[in-house]
Amino acid sequence: MNPDDRSAEDVAGLFRKFGGDAHAYKEFDAADAQVQAANHWPLLSGGPIDRTPVAAPAIAPIPPVAPLFPAAAAPQPVPAPAAGAAPNELQALFARLAEPARPAAPPGPMSRWRRPT
Question: pTM, whole model, 2 decimals?
Answer without folding.
Answer: 0.21
